[in-house]
Fold:
Amino acid sequence: MGAKINDSSDEAIAEINIVPFVDIILVILIIFMVTAPVILKPSINVNLPKAGSGDNTTPSELTIAIDAQGGISLNGAPSSEEAVKAFSTELSQKAPETQAIISADKDVSHGTVVKIIDAVKSGGVKRFAITIEKQK
Structure:
């Protein structure tokens, strides 16, 4: 609603024009929708191996990723084998039923993955899952 042109009274407009507000909110919504995939891009690129079978896993507080060069990432932050073991020990004391989720690049050697599994298990975490990419 706008101002009345032929009104002779000098009263202020008491109604709020909501259309420009809605326009601005819609533009902000579109900006968030376009930028969200860029912001949420994973910090470590792991080319997962493909497999025909596999179950869905629930999110975990202990997520380990190993990139193609053998770099270890614990919950999204660069880490080491010793830090994985220490964090596993701390987490298993708080929640004994914790499950570790291990994502390893398909080009990583088997020995590197086994070392990480050993670090997690020696830290007290008894359950772990290995992430795969499902074949279509």
Q: What stands out?
A: The chain has a mean pLDDT of 79. Residues 50-134 form a domain with the Nucleotidyltransferase; domain 5 fold (CATH 3.30.420.270). The chain is about 35% helix and 20% strand.
